């Protein structure tokens, strides 16, 4: 298990390195070059612009998706996020949804949030809360890969006394082909491209924050629903 | 859009610094599309003073921050821009904001009027940025750059950083300041929980645009 974590960490470092590089010059050059092409065509070939508009938009959209992938990795590894302090969970959720939005749109996934009408916070590192939410989101994205109806994810937060309950639900196939108790174990996954570490990280990060986690095979949206309960210190 | 440079010449020339050939080229397109003349610095430079003496022939400069990945330039773009400020040459730093860069740049920020994300660099933003620089040389600062004496609370610290709160900017947001950003005497005096005064541009819209001057310990 320790070995899996080390491999996972090494993978993240490599991903961060390449994200940093790709997010630098290549993306910058493509973005500015396509803007220059767009400007110059508009100015010099105004009557023929419609012929170029679609391919230019295709490039722009693809580059935006690349930026999300590269930027998200870097954001998640920011030094400040590993400092213990006040973490406002609803804000973390909103930021993650904002970061993932273009990526989700590219996969025709509709994401909805229904967050508690307050500002629940706990003392933690932002990275730990982010790792819980992003791993759950990632799980749902993978679960929706072969779904032919409108793909949906719902992130909900509810405050019950001093506990914040955060659930991530999707309308995928639910938890099938794996025993419920095994989904938390490292290396157990039904996704051939998965690491099987996502839910293990969710479980461990939740425990580290003094919380609890449980799964419902067929939840609110008909697919899997994972509910994380975290003790909060204020709202 | 017309712009009045401090230097009255017919051809308005903008020097371009970037250690990557392709990146330098795309900067050139934007400058050209702004009806300005682009002067890309294609050769590497070993002496910053030589560059600064030659740059006086330019009306403005646009530079990337990271110039040292190759053997292209002996200093970072932020340093070049701050020197240009002293020479009253409008300079724009075009760079992606990453946390490491924020710590590197913030100390020089009083002398860097404009930093633009490459994605936002276009003819309109270029001309607008040049105007900001020129107005600042004339003593007119945009509100986001104007500093005010204000309270700064040292919320936390670790080996390398102070984490501060500026109540008049945002009482809920913690700003990290690398110790290396501060003068030694200031860095050694600050303690957790301490409340001190400093001049801060509290109308900055983003945390990475904040800068601190005149710490009163």
Overview of the molecule:
The complex is a heterodimer of chains A (235) and B (217). Chain A is an alpha+beta fold and 235 residues long. In chain A, 49% of the residues lie in helices and 20% in strands. Chain A has 6 helices and 7 strands, in the order αααβαββαββαββ. Chain A has helices at residues 2-23, 25-44, 49-76, 89-105, 126-143, 198-208, and strands spanning 84-88, 109-114, 121-125, 151-160, 163-170, 212-216, 225-231. Chain A has a 5-stranded mixed sheet with strand order 2-4-5-7-6. Chain A has a two-stranded antiparallel sheet with strand order 1-3. The two termini of chain A are 36 Å apart. By secondary structure, chain B is of the alpha/beta class. In chain B, β6 (148-157) and β7 form a beta hairpin. Chain B is globular. The mean pLDDT of chain B is 91. Classes of the chains: A alpha+beta (235), B alpha/beta (217). The A-B interface holds A 23-25, 28-29, 31-33, 35-36, 39-40, 67, 74, 78-80, 83, 85-86, 88 and B 20, 22-23, 25-27, 29-30, 33, 66, 96, 98-99, 118-119, 121-123, 155-156, 158, 163, 172, 174, 176.
Quick gist of this model?
The complex is a heterodimer of chains A (235) and B (217). With 235 residues, chain A is α+β, with helices and mostly antiparallel strands.
Distance between the termini of chain B: 46 Å
Q: What characterizes the major β-sheet of chain A?
A: 5 strands, mixed
Which range does the strand content of chain B fall in? 25-35%
Overall average residue pLDDT of chain A: 85
Shape of chain B: globular
Largest sheet of chain B: 5 strands, parallel
Poorly predicted runs of chain A: none
Q: Largest beta sheet of chain A: what is the strand line-up? A: 2-4-5-7-6
| Classification by helices and strands of chain A | alpha+beta
Quaternary class: heterodimer
What is the N-to-C succession of helices and strands of chain B?
Answer: EHEHEHEHEHEEEHEE
Class derived from helix and strand content of chain B: alpha/beta
Helix content of chain A: 40-55%
Please give the radius of gyration of chain A in angstroms.
20 Å
Number of helices, counting only DSSP H or I runs of 4 residues or more of chain A: 6
**Overall 3D form of chain A:** globular
Number of strands of chain A: 7
How large is the share of residues in beta strands of chain A?
15-25%
Topology, number of strands of chain B: 10
């Amino acid at each position: 298990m320790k070995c899996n974590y080390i491999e996972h960490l090494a993978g993240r470092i490599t991903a961060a390195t390449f994200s940093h590089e790709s997010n630098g010059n290549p993306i910058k050059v493509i973005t500015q070059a396509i803007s220059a092409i767009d400007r110059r065509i508009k100015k010099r070939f105004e009557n023929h612009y419609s012929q170029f508009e679609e391919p230019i938009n295709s490039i722009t959209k693809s580059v935006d998706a690349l930026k999300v992938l590269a930027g998200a990795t870097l954001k998640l590894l920011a030094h400040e996020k590993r400092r213990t302090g006040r973490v406002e969970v609803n804000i973390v959720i909103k930021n993650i949804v904002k970061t993932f939005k273009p990526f989700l749109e590219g996969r025709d996934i509709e994401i909805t949030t229904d967050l508690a009408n307050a500002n629940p916070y706990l003392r933690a590192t932002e990275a730990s809360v982010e790792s819980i939410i992003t791993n759950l989101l990632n799980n749902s994205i993978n679960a929706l890969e072969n779904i032919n109806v409108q793909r949906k994810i719902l992130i909900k937060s509810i405050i019950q006394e001093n506990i914040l309950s955060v659930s991530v639900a999707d309308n995928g196939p639910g938890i099938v082909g794996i025993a419920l108790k095994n989904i938390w174990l490292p290396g157990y996954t039904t996704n051939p491209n998965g690491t099987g570490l996502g839910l293990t990280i969710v479980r461990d990060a939740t425990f580290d924050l003094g919380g609890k986690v449980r799964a419902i095979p067929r939840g609110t949206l008909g697919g899997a629903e994972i509910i994380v309960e975290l003790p909060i210190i204020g709202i | 859009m017309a712009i009045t440079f401090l230097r009255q010449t017919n051809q308005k020339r903008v020097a371009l610094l970037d250690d990557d050939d392709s990146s330098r080229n795309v900067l050139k397109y934007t400058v050209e599309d702004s009806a300005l003349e682009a002067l890309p610095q294609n050769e590497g430079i070993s002496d910053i003073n030589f560059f600064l003496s030659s740059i006086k022939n330019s009306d403005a400069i646009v530079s990337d921050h990271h110039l040292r990945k190759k053997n292209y330039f002996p200093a970072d773009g932020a340093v070049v821009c701050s020197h240009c400020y002293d020479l009253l040459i409008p300079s724009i730093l075009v760079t992606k904001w990453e946390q490491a860069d924020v710590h590197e740049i913030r100390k020089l920020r009083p002398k860097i009027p404009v930093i633009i994300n490459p994605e936002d660099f276009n003819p309109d933003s270029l001309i607008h940025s040049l105007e900001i620089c020129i107005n600042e040389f004339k003593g007119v600062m945009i509100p986001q750059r104007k500093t005010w004496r204000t309270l700064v609370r040292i919320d936390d610290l670790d080996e390398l950083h102070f984490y501060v709160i500026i109540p008049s900017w945002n009482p809920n947001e913690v700003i990290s300041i690398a110790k290396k950003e501060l003068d030694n005497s200031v860095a050694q005096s600050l303690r957790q929980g301490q409340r001190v005064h400093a001049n801060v541009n509290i109308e900055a819209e983003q945390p990475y645009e904040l800068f601190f001057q005149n710490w009163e310990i």
